[in-house]
Amino acid sequence: MLGKLSGWGDTIVALATPPGIGAIGVIRVSGPEAFTIVGRLFTGKDLSAETSHTLHVGLLVENGEQLDEVVVSLFRAPRSYTGENVIEISCHGSPVVLERVIQAVVRGGARLARAGEFTQRAFLNGKLDLAQAEAVADLIASGSAAGARAALHTIRGGFSRALRELRERLISFSALIELELDFSQEDVEFADRTQLYQLISEATVMTAELLQSFRLGNVIRNGVSVAIVGKPNAGKSTLLNTLLNEERAIVSEIAGTTRDTIEETLNIGGILFRLIDTAGIRQHTTDTIEQIGVGRSLEKMEAADIVLYLFDAREGVDGMRGELMSRGKVFVLVGNKVDVFEGAVDDPEAVMISARSGFGVDSLKKRLVELVLQGETMLGDGAMVTNARHYQALVKVAEALEAVARGLDDLIPGDLLALDIRVALHYLGEITGEITTEERLGYIFSKFCIGK
């Protein structure tokens, strides 16, 4: 399959570990000439004669100059990550040493790999489907345990297996329906319409469940933005510092200290929350800089997934509850400074806390997680959609399945049923990569890091 795309089939090299100083750096070489190119540099053994999945210690030497003492890992095609001959060179982690080794491999006949090219070759050689390949990038970029588990589940084929089974059953029915067209004069039915109706019903339910899972899957993958808003001196910056357990924001008794937004991330129960501390919201201020800060606070509040509205426990929420509801925002009312004021307002819908002492903050964290999960399990054994591209394709699948169901109800001809089934098959194939283009592949894999 590699030969069908331009620029493939040669040997590539890249640093597979993060750039910078470290104890060890790993350089990955993949392609038909990997053993030959590295073998010319490696002393002591003939790598082309060694078996796959073995480690070898030796020196890398170019033109009589020692480059480094290394450990070489051998993976022969097709039993490798890319499906090609692969060598991974474990060097000492000096950037100078790593660059010298990479350049020596390039001079030996390899070229520098493009972003995501190793994983793209794994896809093109049938080691991964496209959904699994995209999950590799998600696993690398995951910022929470839940995100890592979701990506790993997809890499291991959980999501793809569900789609593949559905696609195979639809293909079999589509083939039978199209066979009927060859015998249209005989007025025969090869495809049992009752079984097809049952299959479409099952497929519709499955697709709906996958689409529903995207709400949580998207949160697990990208995190949840939480805007902390309220009047000046309500304790927003103190709450941010308490949640982070560090002095991130300047805290002062002077109202209007926070002039711009401050953003930090916090992992709560495996979910990544992006906390945004905003300037205090008040309508009447003559300070031009503060006015700009208030405007940015309103923008962040509008864009946030969840709004924490912090209010002085002595004063109450005022009319902000109705405003948040009218904006259609998911919000949590948080009454602060309950340790300071006697006779504080007791609002049954609010989480009452003391940002300074930490009282009630654990309850606030619990409320945030509950809002995100909404009774759902973080990760079960079922497939979960975390990728927006997959979600959009599944929307098209659901529309095509609905068209098939309507066609069965209306007793439309088999050729029209087959057309709608082919549409569903097309979008299922787009997810796993059975149907794709070189341009689309280039875009998807360009988002990967170099060396992967």
Description:
Helices cover 44% and strands 17% of the residues. With 452 residues, the chain is of the alpha/beta class. A hairpin with a 2-residue loop joins strand 8 (262-268) and strand 9 (271-277). Helix 4 runs antiparallel to helix 5 (145-155), helix 7 (193-222) packs antiparallel against helix 12 (388-409) and helix 12 (388-409) packs antiparallel against helix 13 (414-432). It is flat. The model is unreliable at 249-259 (pLDDT under 50).
What global shape is seen? flat
What is the average of the pLDDT values? Answer: 80
Order of helices and strands: EEHEEEHEHHHHHEHEEHEHEEHHHH
Helix proportion range: 40-55%
Tell me the radius of gyration.
Answer: 29 Å
**Major sheet characteristics:** 6 strands, mixed
Number of strands: 12
Q: Helical element count?
A: 14
- Rounded to the nearest angstrom, the distance between the terminal CA atoms is 19 Å
Low-confidence stretches: 249-259
Sheet-strand content, in percent, reads 15-25%
Based on helices, strands and strand pairing, what is the structural class?
A: alpha/beta
* Spatial arrangement of strands, main beta sheet: 3-4-5-2-1-6
